[in-house]
Structure formats: C-alpha cells, structure tokens
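Quick illustration, no need to memorize.
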Amino acid sequence: MTRLRSLIKEVLSQPKKKDCGCGCNDCGGKAPILTEGKVKHLISEGLQYHMDKKIQLHESVYRIGSEKHFKLIREARALWVRGIIDVSEDDQAILETHLGNFGLYEGESVPLDMPMVNEISDTLTIRDLFGDDFPFDYIYKPESNQIIIPREGYNNDGTLFDMKDDWKEKIIRTFQEKIPNSVAKPNMGGGITVNLKESLNESKKKKKKDPPIGKPKRGGSKAYYVYVRDPKTKRIKKVSFGSGGLRAKIKNPKARKAFAARHKCSQKNDRTKPSYWSCRLPRYAKQLGLGSNMNTFW
C-alpha cells in the first residue's frame, strides 16, 4: 500500500503533457476510452469530456479533492471494474485504490487514499488570506518572501477557470490594501507574483496592538468601560460599568458612603467585574471628566 500511495502521489504531481491533437490517443497519455459503444448513455458529462478531450483521470479538470473529482473517480472505477472503459496504467493505479471513498477517523469523515491532503497542507487559497471577498478561489504556495498565484483558479463546484483581467486587478488591489508590505504584479505566466518585505508567516505572527489596560473611558454599552487582563485566562476583556447621573453625586460624601455600604465596596477586589470599577469611580474622576480624582470609594 505504501508503494501504491507513492505511485499515486507521483502520478498526481506530474505536469500535464501536451496533446498533439492527432487523435492517436497516445501522445498526451492514454485517456479513458469506451470498450462498448452501446453503453455510452451510462457515461456522465464529466467523464465524457475527459474521453472526448483525451484527458487522463489523474489530470482531472476538477480540483483534486473536490466532490466533482471524487465523483469522477468513483464513476470511472465502477465502469472500469465492469470492463466498460479502458484506462492507462497510471489511471489504473488510482482506480485500484479507495480514492473517492470516505472513512471515519476519530469520529470524522475523511477521504481515503488522498495523498495530496498532506502535500497541500502548507498551500493556501485567496479566501484563506482575504476571506470570502472573491467568488473564485486561487491556490498558491508561499515561497519565503514571494508567492506565485497561477492564472487558473477554481469554481465552487471544483471546475477550473482562467484568471480574467478584472479579477487579476482586484487581487493585486486587495494585496495592496490589506498587506501594505506587498508588491503584487502580473507575471509572464498569466498569473500574479507577490513580493513581500517580510514573509507572510511573519506578517501573520504580528500581534494586534493591545488596548490600554486599566484605564476607564466614557462610552460603551453603559456609562463607562475599561479593558482588563483576566489573570486566569491571560486574555484581555472589556468591562462596562456605571450609569447616568453620576456627575451630580460623586462629590457628595453622604452619597458615596451610602453607595459603598450598599454595594459592599470594601469587598469588591475582582478587577474583571463591573462592581470593582463602579466602586472606585472617584479615583478615575479626572480622566472621565467628573472632576478631580479622589482616593475613596464611590
């Protein structure tokens, strides 16, 4: 099975051969052919296209690993086993595997005999990078500080299409807008070459600037808000607190004393809770526009 997987991997990674167009069904490799003309009605449009265009199964027009690709392999295998079609040795090696079928692994359905799953683990798509801004997906592989996007992309059903000029312009513009350290230009192959001042992985590792911690501000869902770091999770969280009408009472000693007693402010020591900040509001009076700071509970 290891040797068979290696063969499949080698076949799938081979570049496409040019067809001479002479109809010999051999120059470009042996494509699937019908052995019984009377059963032509059994052939799907996709498989028929491969036959008509003399395209081998391992050079599928569908994206490798897509549902369309798996369906093509399953159909070809069923017809080949029954002797209805004949295929090349390379395609036979694929049909002798379980490619196109699925099995359970740790409770999840995974494709069987799909060696390219590991092969493209470090391969990304435009949607991986920019989200769902694009109706088509282009696969590319980062190479140090440069990435190459081929002219071919994939439709949602897995079929190939050529990159149009308008999409080329949008991809280049998106790189310029969302990754300022990139220089994207059309290349001679009809695709796009992107040069980065730093590697894409390093760019992704840059942390977003943290908001100021422990500095209350006006606004938010309540009267005030403050960012704090949770000592348990080490994550930053936003704490909203307070209500309207505080300015008139914050300098009233009786009001402060009543509030502190009612809310047990001396026991409020959790900085991740609104009560902690409500109780200590006078200590941040100046930055909140409530007057001078006072070292007291509300």
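The first helix runs from residue 2 to 13.
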